[in-house]
C-alpha cells in the first residue's frame, strides 16, 4: 500500500521534473540518471527468473546471431514504421494547435522537434493536442496529471508481461530459439514453430517438456500458457522443450471408440463408421458434462517412500483417480481417492524399470507441475503395456481438461486444414505484394511465411537480414510474437530456457528525461513495439507528450488502422535493409544500456531481492538485453 | 347425420335391440353427491353420447358448467369421449354402469423437491398429455422428459398426513385445459415446448401472480428448498441394491393411457419425476422451475443413495447443497428468477469493465488497496526440529505471503516469501477448540512445502483463508470475490459453532452437515468431523452464483459413472437366472447381478429394430451384425421397457429438430406399443 503510494508520488514528481527540465535537456547529451522508484511489482518479477546473463552465455553462437538479427530487424522495422508515420502526420497536423501552448518552462517547438526528426521514431506522439478552448493552467495540469496516472498504470500492466527466450528442440536434433510472451498459448507457439520449420502442420505436433531428473515427458495442451510452466523450472535445470509429433495427443478424437469402448476387442472397433465416431464424440464431449472413459483395471502403484510397487484395482472418475482397497468391492462408496486432478498434471515416464524398479517401462506419474525432483508428493503408476498407459493418461487428461481438449482438437484441425491453403497463399502473396490478411492469425502466418527464405539464403544471417522487402510489404505491424529467424542447425547440446527479466521497459522509457526518449529505444521485445501505434489517441498536452508520451502504449488502437499507407511501408522496407545488424542501427543507444548494466542483470530466483529498482528506471531493460547481446556478439567476433 | 354414421358401421348388424327400442341407461352423476342414487335415463342405441349427456344434464336440474364432464364406463375402465358416437357404436348396453364425472380432477402431486402440490390434472387423456398439462401449469419446459409414477408405499402414513401435504394448492388456478377441444390441444402442445409462453409478471408466469398463495407456490417450485433434517432423510425409503433400484419401474404410469384407466382416482397421490435422463436445451433464463426441480431430484437421488458416489464426490455435493441452500435463502422472490441472476452478474461485470476503462483513479485505489498485515503463528512441520508455532509478522500481498521477524522489520527483507499460486489450501479448524489453522501445501521443485498458519480468531482466519484461497487460484486480494469469500468462510464457521453447541436445529444461518450427505455418512462421521471435510470442498465452490452452483451440481451428477442408468430386472431368453438390464440414453447394458459387473453393452445406433410380443411380454431386439437378444421383464411391465427404449430414441431425435414443437405423435408411435396401433 505505502509502497505503491510512494511509487506514484515518486512517479508524478519525476514526470513533473522531466517536463520542467525538458528545455535544457533537449540539447544536452548526457542523460541525468532518473531516481529509483521502488515498485511492489518487482517482487513478482523476481520470482522464478534466472540470471539471464548466464543463460545468454549459454546460448549457442548461432542462436545469438539469430536472436540478434531478429531483434535488430524488429527495431528497424518499428523505427521505420514510426518514421513513415511521422511523415504522414507531419503533412497534416503540424500547424494546428501550437497556439494553445501552455507554460513557458517548456521548450516545445524548435529544438525538440528537430531533435525528434533527427532521432527518428516514436516521437509522433508529440502531435500537438487538440486545439480546444484554452483551459486554465490548473485544469491543464490536472488533466496532465490524470493522463499521466492513466498512462503510467497502463504501462505498469504492460510491464508485467513476462517473456522468455525458449530454445525448442526439434526431432531431427536441430533447434529453434524463440521468444514467448506469457500471454501466448501453446497453440500460438506451435503456430510459430510451424512457420519456422517445414513440417506438415498436422494436428499431432506438440510442444513437450522433458525432465531428465524425473525422466518424464509431457505434451503441453494447446490452451495452456507456455511461460507459466517454464517459469517454474529451476535455474540450473536440464529440462528441455521439444517440438515433435505425438500420436496420442488427439488420438481420442480420431478413434474415440478405442477409448470409450476400450473393453471391446480393438479389432472389432477398427472399422467403425465415421458417423458412429462422431456420435461417440457428441455423446461424450458435447453434453452438459464431459463423460470420462470408464477406465478400470489393475495398475501398479509405487508405495510412498518405498521401492516396491503394489498392484491395485484402479478406477477413473471425473472427480479423480481411485482405487478399491483390499477386500472391498469396487462400489463407489468404498473407493479410495488417490488423487484429484485440479492441481496435478500427468506425465509419461521413461525407463522406470531401471530407475525405480518398476514392473514395466510403461509408467506415468501425477504431480504438481512445479515439482521438479523426486518427491513423496509424486504419484508413480505403472501399466502392463503401452496401450494401457495411453488409455489412462488420455483418460486423465479428459478428466482434467474436459471439453477444452475437444475444442483444442477442433482448433488444431482447422489450423491444419488452413495451413495448407495458407502455405500456397503466402507464396502468392510474397510474389505480388498483397493485401494484409484479414485475421490476426492469418496475418501472422503471412508475415512469417517468408522467413524460411531467409534461412535458405545462407548461413550468415547478418548479411541476409533484414528479411526480403517483398515479404515485409505484406507485413502490417511487426508480428506480436517475435520469432527469430531459424538459425542454422545447432548441436543440441545445451537446451535452456533463457529467462528474460520481466521487461519493465515501458515504465522506464517513459520516465527518463526527454532526450533519451527521443532516441530510438533500445530494442525492446517487439510485442510492445507493435503496441506503439503512433496515432496517439487522446493526445496528451505537449509538455507531456514530448517527454513520455511517445513511449507509452496507448490504449491499444487497431494496429492496422494506425498503419501508414503502403507506400510508406515500402519505404520502410528498403530502409530496413540499411542498418547493419550488429550495433543497433539507429543512433546511440549506448548510454542507456550502459546505465542499465550495473544492477539490471542481477536477478535471483530466490525470494525478493529488491535490487531491481535501479534498472527499472535507469534504462529500458531492453537495453539490458541489447547490451548483453551486443557484448556477446562482440566477443564472438573477436574470437 | 349420426344415424347415417351408425348405419354404415358394421356393428349395427349385431346390436341386440332394435335401434328404435328405448331402454334405461344407468348413470351416476358425481355432482349429486356420493349418496345420491344413479340416474336412469331412457335412451335408444342410436342416441349418441352427446345426446346422452344432454339428457342427463337436463334430468339433474343442476345449473352449472358441465363442459368438463364426460362419461366414464366403470366396468370397461374407459372413457366415452367421442360425443358423436352412438351408444351402440361404443358398445354400451343396458347393463353398463356409467359415471358422469369431470375429466379434470384434483391430484396430489409429489414434486421432485419432495413437496406435495394439490392441483387439477386431466384424468381422461393419455398420461403423456396429462403430464404436458401439468408441466404447462408449473412452467416446466420439455414435459416429455417427465412422467408420473405411483409413490412408494409409506408405512406409517397416518399421523403427518395433513400438515405438510395440503400446504400448496393450485386447484383454483383456472385451467385453460378446462375446455380442451382439439384445436386447443394442439395449441397446448405447442405451448409446452415454446420458450416463453407466459407473460412474465415480476419474473414469474402471470397465472402465479393471482394471489399470495400461488406466488408462494411458484417460489416453492423455482427456489430450491432448505436441506432436509437428517432424520427425514433417514426415514425415507432408500434402495439398498441394484435389485431395489429396479422396483421403481413397477410404478411408472403407462404414458399412453389415461389416469382413470390406470386406477388413479381423485385426490390420489402421484409423483412427478424426470424419467428420461437427457435434458434438452436447458436454459437458466427460461428454466427456473425445471432447473430447480431437476436439482432437487438429483439431490435426493444422492441423499437417498439412489446413485452411488465416492466420499470425495459426496463432500462436494454436500458443499454445493450448502451453498445453494444459503443462496436460495437469501434470495427474494424477484431475483429468484434465474434470468435476473444472470443479468445482475452481467451488469456487474459491465460495471467493472467500465470502471476499469474510464476511471483511472479508481484503478489506482484498487491497486493500492489489497494487502493483509498481521502477526500470525507459523509452523513448518517439515523441519525435523520439534519447534512449534512461532510468531511472525506476515504480509499478504498479491499472491504471496512474506513474513518477517516483527513488524519493525517489515520494510526489510522478509525471512521468506511464499508464493501461493497453485498451492493447496486446507482448513484445519475447530471452533470449539478455538483452533484456526490454515494448512498450505506449496509446490516447489523439490516437492511440496507444508506450512501451517495459525490465526488468533475467526475474523483473522476468514480474511487470511480467503486470501490464500484466492491466491492459490492466481487471484489477488483486489479480486471482487474476496469479500464474498471472507463472508462465506465466516458463515461456515458459524455453522460449525452451532453444531458443536447443540443438537441440529436448523436455522437460517446454520445447518447440520448431516443433512447434506447420505445416511451412510451419518453413521461414518459425526457432524463435527464432517464439517471440515465439507468446508474443504466448499472452498472450491463458494464463489459460484446460485445458477452456476446448481448447474455445477447437475454437471457433477451427470458425470457420475452410474448416471442415467435405469435398471430393470429381466430374464434373458435362454438364461436361467435373473439379470439386470440397464437402459440409458444411448445404450443397453447387461449387468451380472452377482458381481454387479457390466457384461455387455449394446448401443442404440447399432439397433435395427425392437419388437414386443405383448402376449408373452417379451422384448426382442435386433442389432447390426445379426445380433439378436430377447428378454422378459421380471418385475416391471414390459411396456415400461418399451417406453424407455422408444422414449430415448425419441429424445435423440429432438436435437435435430429445429422447431420447438413437441412431436407428440412420434412419441406415441415410439412408445405406445400396441396401443399405438
TrEMBL record, chain A:
Coiled coil: none
Predominant cellular place of this UniProt entry's protein: membrane
Alphabetical list of SMART domains matching this protein: PH, RA
Record-level GO BP terms: signal transduction
Pro residues bias spans: 465-492, 500-527, 552-568, 578-592
Membrane topology, as annotated: Peripheral membrane protein
GO cellular component term of the entry, any: plasma membrane
CDD domains in UniProt: PH_APBB1IP
InterPro entries reported in the protein's UniProt record: GRB/APBB1IP, PH-like_dom_sf, PH_APBB1IP, PH_domain, RA_dom, Ubiquitin-like_domsf
Ranges annotated as biased composition (Polar residues): 103-117
PH domain sequence ranges: 292-401
Keywords: Cell membrane, Cytoplasm, Cytoskeleton, Membrane
Annotated region described as Disordered, given as residue ranges: 15-44, 86-141, 423-639
PROSITE patterns: PH_DOMAIN (PS50003), RA (PS50200)
Domain Ras-associating: 162-249
Family membership noted in the UniProt record: Belongs to the MRL family.
Protein name from the UniProt record: Amyloid beta A4 precursor protein-binding family B member 1-interacting protein
Organism of derivation: Cyprinus carpio (Common carp)
Organism ancestry: Eukaryota, Metazoa, Chordata, Craniata, Vertebrata
UniProtKB/TrEMBL annotation, chain B:
InterPro entries assigned: Band_41_domain, FERM_2, FERM_central, Kindlin/fermitin, Kindlin_2_N, PH-like_dom_sf, PH_domain, PH_Kindlin/fermitin
Keyword entries, A-Z: Cell adhesion
GO terms, molecular function: integrin binding
Domain PH: 377-473
GO terms under cellular component: cell-substrate junction
GO biological process: one example: regulation of cell-cell adhesion mediated by integrin
Pfam family, one: Kindlin_2_N
Similarity comment: Belongs to the kindlin family.
Name of the protein: Fermitin family homolog 3-like
Species lineage: Eukaryota, Metazoa, Chordata, Craniata, Vertebrata
Amino acid at each position: 500500500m505505502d509502497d505503491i503510494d510512494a511509487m506514484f508520488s515518486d512517479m508524478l514528481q519525476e514526470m513533473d521534473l522531466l517536463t520542467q527540465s525538458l528545455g535544457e535537456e533537449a540539447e544536452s547529451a548526457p542523460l541525468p540518471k532518473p531516481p529509483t522508484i521502488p515498485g511492489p511489482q518487482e517482487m513478482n518479477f523476481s520470482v522464478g527468473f534466472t540470471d539471464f546473463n548466464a543463460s545468454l552465455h549459454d546460448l549457442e553462437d548461432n542462436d545469438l546471431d539469430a536472436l540478434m538479427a531478429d531483434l535488430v530487424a524488429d527495431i528497424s522495422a518499428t523505427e521505420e514504421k514510426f518514421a513513415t508515420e511521422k511523415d504522414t502526420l507531419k503533412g497534416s497536423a503540424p500547424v494546428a494547435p501550437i497556439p494553445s501552448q501552455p507554460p513557458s518552462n517548456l521548450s516545445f517547438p524548435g529544438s525538440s522537434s528537430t531533435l525528434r526528426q533527427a532521432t527518428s521514431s516514436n516521437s509522433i506522439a508529440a502531435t500537438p493536442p487538440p486545439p480546444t478552448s484554452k483551459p486554465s493552467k490548473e485544469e491543464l495540469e490536472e488533466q496532465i496529471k490524470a493522463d499521466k496516472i492513466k498512462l503510467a498504470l497502463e504501462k505498469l500492466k504492460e510491464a508485467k508481461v513476462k517473456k522468455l527466450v525458449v530454445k525448442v528442440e526439434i526431432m531431427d536434433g536441430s533447434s529453434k530459439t524463440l521468444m514467448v510472451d506469457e500471454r501466448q498459448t501453446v497453440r500460438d507457439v506451435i503456430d510459430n514453430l510451424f512457420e519456422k520449420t517445414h513440417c506438415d502442420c498436422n494436428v499431432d505436433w506438440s510442444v513437450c517438456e522433458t525432465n531428465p531428473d524425473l525422466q518424464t515427458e509431457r505434451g503441453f495442451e494447446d490452451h495452456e500458457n507456455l511461460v507459466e510452466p517454464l517459469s517454474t523450472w529451476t535455474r540450473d535445470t536440464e529440462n528441455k522443450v521439444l517440438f515433435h509429433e505425438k500420436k496420442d495427443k488427439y488420438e481420442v478424437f480420431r478413434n474415440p471408440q478405442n477409448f470409450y469402448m476400450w473393453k471391446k476387442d480393438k479389432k472389432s472397433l477398427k472399422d467403425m463408421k465415421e458417423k458412429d465416431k462422431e456420435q461417440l464424440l457428441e455423446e461424450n464431449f458435447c453434453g452438459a458434462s464431459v463423460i470420462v472413459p470408464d477406465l478400470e483395471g489393475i495398475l501398479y502403484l509405487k508405495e510412498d517412500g518405498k521401492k516396491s510397487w503394489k498392484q491395485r484395482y484402479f478406477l477413473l472418475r471425473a472427480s479423480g483417480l481411485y482405487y478399491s482397497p483390499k477386500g472391498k468391492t469396487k462400489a463407489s462408496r468404498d473407493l479410495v481417492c488417490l488423487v484429484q486432478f485440479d492441481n496435478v498434471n500427468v506425465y509419461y515416464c521413461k525407463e522406470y524399470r531401471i530407475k525405480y524398479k518398476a514392473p514395466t517401462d510403461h509408467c506415468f506419474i501425477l504431480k504438481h507441475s512445479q515439482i521438479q525432483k523426486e518427491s513423496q508428493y509424486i504419484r508413480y503408476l505403472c501399466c502392463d503395456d503401452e496401450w494401457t498407459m495411453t488409455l489412462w493418461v488420455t483418460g486423465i487428461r479428459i478428466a482434467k481438461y474436459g471439453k477444452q481438449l475437444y475444442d483444442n482438437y477442433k482448433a488444431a484441425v482447422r489450423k491444419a486444414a488452413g495451413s495448407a491453403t495458407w502455405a500456397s497463399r503466402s507464396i502468392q502473396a510474397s510474389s505480388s505484394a498483397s493485401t494484409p490478411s484479414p485475421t490476426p492469425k492469418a496475418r501472422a502466418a503471412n508475415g512469417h511465411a517468408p522467413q524460411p527464405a531467409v534461412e535458405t539464403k545462407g548461413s550468415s544471417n547478418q548479411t541476409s537480414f533484414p528479411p526480403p522487402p517483398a515479404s515485409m510489404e505484406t507485413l502490417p505491424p511487426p508480428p506480436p510474437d517475435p520469432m527469430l529467424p531459424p538459425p542454422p542447425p545447432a548441436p543440441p547440446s545445451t537446451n535452456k530456457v533463457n529467462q528474460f527479466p520481466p521487461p519493465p521497459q515501458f515504465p522506464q522509457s517513459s520516465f527518463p528525461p526527454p532526450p533519451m526518449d527521443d532516441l530510438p529505444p533500445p530494442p525492446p521485445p517487439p510485442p510492445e513495439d507493435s503496441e506503439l501505434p503512433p496515432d496517439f489517441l487522446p493526445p496528451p498536452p505537449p509538455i507531456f507528450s514530448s517527454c513520455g508520451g511517445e513511449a507509452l502504449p496507448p490504449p491499444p488502437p487497431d494496429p492496422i488502422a494506425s498503419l501508414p499507407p503502403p507506400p510508406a511501408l515500402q519505404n520502410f522496407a528498403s530502409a530496413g535493409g540499411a542498418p547493419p545488424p550488429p550495433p543497433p542501427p539507429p543512433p546511440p543507444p549506448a548510454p542507456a544500456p550502459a546505465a542499465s548494466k550495473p544492477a539490471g542483470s542481477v536477478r535471483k530466483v530466490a525470494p525478493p531481492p529488491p535490487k531491481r529498482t535501479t534498472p527499472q528506471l535507469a534504462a529500458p531493460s531492453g537495453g539490458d538485453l541489447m547490451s548483453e547481446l551486443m557484448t556477446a556478439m562482440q566477443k564472438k567476433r573477436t574470437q | 347425420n349420426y344415424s347415417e354414421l351408425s348405419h354404415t358401421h358394421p356393428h349395427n348388424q349385431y346390436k341386440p335391440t332394435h335401434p328404435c327400442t328405448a331402454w334405461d341407461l344407468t348413470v351416476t352423476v358425481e355432482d349429486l353427491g356420493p349418496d345420491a342414487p344413479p340416474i336412469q335415463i331412457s335412451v335408444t342405441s342410436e342416441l349418441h353420447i352427446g345426446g346422452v349427456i344432454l339428457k342427463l344434464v337436463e334430468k339433474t336440474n343442476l345449473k352449472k358448467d358441465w363442459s368438463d364432464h364426460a362419461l366414464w364406463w366403470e366396468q370397461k375402465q374407459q372413457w366415452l369421449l367421442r360425443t358423436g358416437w352412438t351408444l351402440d357404436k361404443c358398445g354400451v348396453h343396458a347393463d353398463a354402469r356409467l359415471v358422469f364425472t369431470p375429466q379434470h380432477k384434483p391430484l396430489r402431486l409429489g414434486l421432485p423437491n419432495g413437496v406435495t402440490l394439490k392441483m387439477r390434472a386431466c384424468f381422461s387423456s393419455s398420461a403423456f398429455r396429462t403430464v404436458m398439462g401439468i408441466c404447462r401449469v408449473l412452467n416446466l419446459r420439455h414435459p416429455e422428459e417427465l412422467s408420473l409414477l405411483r409413490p412408494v408405499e409409506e408405512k406409517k402414513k397416518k399421523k403427518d398426513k395433513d400438515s405438510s401435504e395440503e400446504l400448496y394448492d393450485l386447484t383454483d388456478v383456472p385451467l385453460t385445459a378446462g375446455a380442451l377441444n382439439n384445436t386447443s390441444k394442439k395449441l397446448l402442445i405447442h405451448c409446452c415446448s415454446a420458450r416463453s409462453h407466459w407473460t412474465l409478471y415480476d419474473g414469474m408466469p402471470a397465472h402465479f401472480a393471482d394471489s399470495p398463495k400461488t406466488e408462494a407456490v411458484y417460489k416453492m417450485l423455482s427456489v430450491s428448498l432448505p436441506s432436509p433434517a437428517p432424520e427425514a432423510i433417514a426415514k425415507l425409503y432408500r434402495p439398498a441394491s441394484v435389485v431395489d433400484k429396479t422396483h421403481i419401474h413397477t410404478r411408472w404410469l403407462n404414458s399412453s393411457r389415461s389416469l382413470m384407466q390406470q386406477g388413479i382416482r381423485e385426490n390420489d397421490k402421484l409423483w412427478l419425476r424426470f424419467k428420461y435422463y437427457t435434458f434438452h436445451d436447458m436454459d437458466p433464463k427460461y428454466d427456473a422451475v425445471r432447473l430447480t426441480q431437476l436439482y432437487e431430484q438429483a439431490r435426493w437421488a444422492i441423499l437417498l443413495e439412489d446413485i452411488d458416489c465416492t466420499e470425495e464426490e459426496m463432500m462436494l455435493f454436500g458443499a454445493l447443497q450448502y451453498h445453494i441452500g444459503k443462496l436460495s435463502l437469501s434470495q427474494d422472490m424477484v431475483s429468484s428468477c434465474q434470468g435476473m441472476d444472470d443479468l445482475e452478474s452481467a451488469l456487474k461485470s459491465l460495471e467493472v469493465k467500465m470502471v476499469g476503462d474510464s476511471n483511472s483513479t479508481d484503478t489506482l485505489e484498487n491497486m493500492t488497496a489489497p494487502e493483509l498485515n498481521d502477526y500470525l503463528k507459523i509452523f513448518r512441520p517439515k523441519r525435523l526440529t520439534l519447534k512449534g508455532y512461532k510468531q511472525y509478522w506476515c504480509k499478504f500481498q498479491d499472491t504471496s505471503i512474506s513474513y518477517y521477524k516483527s513488524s519493525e522489520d517489515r520494510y526489510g527483507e522478509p525471512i521468506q516469501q511464499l508464493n501461493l499460486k497453485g498451492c493447496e489450501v486446507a482448513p484445519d479448524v475447530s471452533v470449539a477448540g478455538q483452533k484456526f489453522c490454515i494448512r498450505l501445501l506449496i509446490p516447489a521443485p523439490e516437492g511440496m512445502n507444508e506450512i501451517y498458519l495459525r490465526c488468533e480468531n475467526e475474523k483473522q482466519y476468514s480474511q487470511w483463508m480467503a486470501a490464500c484461497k484466492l491466491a492459490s487460484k492466481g487471484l489477488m486480494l483486489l479480486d471482487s470475490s474476496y469479500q464474498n469469500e471472507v463472508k462465506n468462510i465466516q458463515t461456515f464457521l458459524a455453522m460449525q459453532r452451532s453444531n458443536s453447541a447443540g443438537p441440529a436445529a436448523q436455522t437460517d444461518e446454520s445447518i447440520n452437515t448431516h443433512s447434506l450427505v447420505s445416511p451412510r455418512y451419518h453413521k461414518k462421521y459425526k457432524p463435527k468431523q464432517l464439517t471440515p471435510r465439507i468446508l474443504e470442498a466448499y472452498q472450491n465452490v463458494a464463489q459460484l452464483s446460485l445458477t452456476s452452483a446448481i448447474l455445477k451440481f447437475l454437471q457433477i451428477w451427470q458425470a457420475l459413472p452410474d448416471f442415467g442408468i435405469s435398471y430393470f430386472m429381466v430374464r434373458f431368453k435362454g438364461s436361467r437366472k435373473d439379470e439386470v438390464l440397464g437402459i440409458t440414453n444411448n445404450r443397453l447394458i447387461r449387468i451380472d447381478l452377482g458381481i454387479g459387473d457390466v457384461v455387455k453393452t449394446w448401443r442404440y445406433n447399432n439397433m435395427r429394430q425392437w419388437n414386443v410380443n405383448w402376449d408373452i411380454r417379451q422384448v426382442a431386439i435386433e442389432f447390426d451384425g445379426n445380433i439378436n437378444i430377447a428378454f422378459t421383464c421380471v418385475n416391471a411391465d414390459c411396456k415400461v421397457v418399451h417406453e424407455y427404449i422408444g422414449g430415448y430414441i425419441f429424445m435423440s431425435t429432438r436435437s435435430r429438430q429445429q422447431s420447438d414443437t413437441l412431436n407428440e405423435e412420434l412419441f406415441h408411435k415410439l412408445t405406445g406399443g400396441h396401443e399405438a396401433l
